[in-house]
Sequence to fold (429 residues):
Amino acid sequence: MAKLACPKGLRAYYSMLSLDLFGLIFVKENPAEISTVLRGSEAVDYIKNEFLSIENEVSKTSGPGRITQGAVWGLLSRLHLNAAVYRNPYASTFDFKSEDMDKVILYTSKIIESGQYNLSSEYFEIFDDENHTNKELIFAVDQRAELNGHNRLAYFSLSGDRFPLPAFVKANGTDGPAITSDFYQTWVVAYGSKDPATMDPRFSKKNLIIPADSCVTAANFEIDRGIIRGQQYGLLTTANGQPFARCADGIGYKIGKLRNITRADKTKLVNHTEKIDFTAEGSGYSSGYRVLKYEFSKKSDNGRNRGDADIVILRLADVYMMRAEAKLRKSNDAGGALADVNLVRASRTARIVPPALTSMKLDLLYSERGFEFYWEMLRRTDMIRFGKYEGTWTEKTDGNVQKRLFPIPQSAIDGASDKPGYLVQNAGY
Fold:
């Protein structure tokens, strides 16, 4: 049984992803049989029982790239927290059952009391290349180079005219996704007239502390992390693929205002603005505040490969946040929830410590989850559970509850079985 525990746990985890995204799972115990399609309560119960069957079979101490007992408890917590949504994904209001919230509190408390994990004092170390040994990680995708890891989450959002590595002239960003103005404004609302960069260590980390037109050695060059705003400074190059400009001493690299050197208008500054949408103003190369949460790997010669940072699936901060939410949903235990949230905030002591919150309710917890877990692929699930998914933001106006689930690809429907009506498309597609 022990040899089968980890694969069984992974199967349960992937089933939970399928349930979250598409509202169904496939169950097959005999390879010769056609899979059974489960939805709603049946799917929740199946996944729960799969995790429970390996709870005491898996390792208690192996690394975050493996299904451990802590990972089982954490994924069970996540399952029970979202069970109301999974049972009835189109509900106008979700029925968060007390017994589910009790299970969340039980399993999160087991993780916390196990002593296996610690909150990281430096927030961005959780997402460094060396994060495989970070004690906040409970479950992650192992991306170490010796395992041919390729975490590409660093370059997606960066400007195409941002070159993070003096050693590699072809390693740059891609001008992909940026955060919405709506999400940025949640930080503004939280900290009022004070810049969130000066108040909350999760917002950003300043590494490139230099004036314009400076010289920096390769060893001392490191770009900023977190949410990236405004005029950007960095390595200067005359054209794409050309060597970086050197200082007069022949050792340092020239640092100055970045321009769209890889674009048609090479004089335009790389100055990230808050607005991002499909208008001419909001869809330019510099539009939208960017995110560099995962470290840009120092081994990446083209920016698209050799990212060593493990991709976080579950970490200790989420355990505290899930417990806080369960306390609020079960009995409106605002004091207990506030203590859990403030404990996470107070743990980030490496640079600045965010001020303690003085009250707690679900809307505040929703914002706090955004501050803690942005860029970690949890937001859609959180928005649905907190009743925010049908809202309006940027250019999204559709409030159809049926869009909470994704459409099943037609190729999957066609290829799943020749049995008529075997796999039914989700409502609304």
Remarks:
- The mean pLDDT is 94.
- The radius of gyration is 23 Å.
- The chain has eleven helices and twelve strands.
